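Two proteins follow. First one:
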Amino acid sequence: MGTKQKVKKTPKQRAKKAGKILLILLLVIAVIAAAVAVVNVVSYSSNRTFIKEAIQPVSFEEQLEPELMDGHYTFFTDREFKIMQLTDIHLGGGCMSTQKDNMAINAVAAMITAEKPDLVVVTGDIAYPVPHQAGTLNNKSGAVTFAQLMEKLGVYWCNVYGNHDTELYAYHSRKDISKNVYGNKEKYPHCLFQAGPDEIDGEGNYVINIRNKTTGDIRQSLFLFDSHSYVDGDYFGFMWKYDSVHENQVQWYRDTVKALTEENGGATPQSLAFFHIPLPEMKEAAKEYQENDFQDTENVKYFEGVLGENDMVICSGVYNYGLFDAFKETGSTQGVFFGHDHLNNMSLSYKGIRLTYGYSIDYLAYPEIFKYGLQRGCTVITVKPDSSFDCHHENYYQDKYQATGEKETVILDHGMADDQDHAGAVFDFQAENNMD
């Protein structure tokens, strides 16, 4: 019996076979991508349905309505003005984050419903489009979900961008989100976000004023800044090289304070500032405080909270463009509020200016953080009729905050130092993967 000869394929036949294999691979990838897209749509739609059907509007005795005056949204009132700072909400908006997104929605809604703030300020990272945790690169879905939540609550709000809101690999840019979500006043009339001047860096540099209803004087100006994302080639934030408010933004601040002073009859208005990434001066203040054995110094006065990140790290901007110095020199800004480091919530005064980390919301970014609760909540800021202000943190896990859905059980005793110790926390999880 003869041996069967193997027929050698011609180059044309080999190319045809390779083409078939490639086509099959492309079809498989397309099917998987389509399946993920469908699952993502179903997932984030479930939370939007929850918002539409379960969340109820906040009941106000007297809700203040802002007016657009000289390009700035302006509230007129003679009473105390209540601001709630929220930060690092981290809505994934994808199939892998549905449950944790729902927890975040519940927390935000419960605190706003109970506190009834005149204005909510979100200091960055509303969206978190990190694919291995969220299941999507679509950062618009988290932004839209939050905007829909706030619109259903019927509360006026504004925001600045964080480093995660528009990651390099995310689908939508800051300009796109600004125009089609936060800047869409037809869909979201309660959102007071403004893109700000085109000639300075960033998206979302703007001012909101609180004026005396009787005299028209500015009681407090709220300055909101884009503190950007990463620098020095650290495009994905793996090296912890964070950006800061840039030099031309600092000049815009100076110019705006001067213009508002003229509007205010020559009196420099008191102001508060909000952005995502902490000032380098927060690191300076904390270092001075630690080196003095956690006791007040000539420059530092402690109010509340802890540095809960591992080794009490503060992930401030790499470069200092003089924003804190401008605050001092103008004599306008009394307090500064930021987020970014989810386990830090210290509030202290440094050289006469109050620097405050907001309580974070995050259920998603830090590994296992959904199990823990001491760091989760809001910051309540009260602007008084005499233009002074007070602020304090409120933990979410209090009876006064009743969630619409099921309120999760968390560990409230997990190694974080109490306010008397003023020291850092050692959590059971590590925040070493740069997910702040």
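Second one, unrelated to the first:
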Amino acid sequence: MKELDYYSIGTRIRKYRKAQGITQEQLAEMVGISIPHMSHIETGNTKLSLSVLVQIAEALSVQTDALIYDQPIVNNSVIKQEISELIDKCNNQQSKIIVETVKNMKITLDKYY
């Protein structure tokens, strides 16, 4: 079994935290750990427990796999909300074009992936 890379896990935690505009202090408070402990987690200087990993993932609204493995996160509810907000800002013609474009992209993705 492959050893966990705590430095990479910490780096991914920091990346998702910053992407959401959450400070290290805020995330530590959300998870119920000290700020120095959160800092040590993000720098890979300490191992984190499974329960803390799960709490961090929940606080960042990401799956634990996204923190453990180097893979993009797809949060469909967030994506659907973004698309909905975008379409709300469009007129009917623009909305139709967006829908047709997405349909064609999906057909292409299914064909090649």
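SUMMARY FIELD: The chain is about 70% helix and 0% strand. The mean pLDDT is 91.
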